[in-house]
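Need tokens for this chain, all 278 residues.
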Amino acid sequence: MGKIISIVNQKGGVGKTTTAINLSASLAILDYKILIVDTDPQANAGSGLGIDSKEHTHNIYSALVGESDIKDCVLSTEIPNLDVIPSHIDLAGFELEIVNQVAREYILKELVAPLKEEYDFIFIDCSPSLGLMVINSIVASDSVLIPVQCEYFALEGIAKLQNTVDIIKKRLNPELEMEGYVLTMYDGRTNLSKMVVEDVRNYFKDDCFETIVPRNVKLAEAPSYGVPALLMFSGEKGEEFDIKFLENKGAISYVDLAKEMLRRNNLPEFKAEITIAA
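Here are the structure tokens for all 278 residues:
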């Protein structure tokens, strides 16, 4: 049975989609079966994996309104073990469509729950808000992962976000857990980044991942090529990817984050070890 994790922060530009894409890709190359569910109307998670949402009539919006079966919305990517359910711009008006619907907070949960048997991890990439769609995502999840940008203003909304998560846990999803806070866009040259890291770690303690994602050009460039940063490596076209030759610091940080997440979930760093042990 897989684990569903929402990647949430109401502030934009903190690295939610970057984390969704690169963390998922890193877990996929470690042999785990991964699905990304893009619930942001901007549809960046899909485009960052080379998928144009306009070309696909089956997407998370069509599934939510009952026009598609959720399994028909799953698309494979160039990375083995990594699938995605793309978003669509029409999702922007979905909250208004369901505002008077009974049990409106559980719509996404009913859709995604059957997919847990087919994947090790399902990541829900959320929009930068605390609206009804984000609430649906958190209700559908087993845990919440919160990217925190290493800048001053990034800290201001964390308390409000944490309060929202606590309310959802109390009223709608009692089993919800905190997957952790991951520090992103770290610039070791600035005192501010260092201060933010210290403050977040002091406040959230063990809930904060040790791995820090640096501000990195390859992480920023990769979406324009429709691939995760770990595939932005120098080599002949068509050359098989080998993690041993990964040099980019941004991509390496997400591989390290994936391994740390696996350890926190008491899973081996490479899934094949489970089969070997058996």
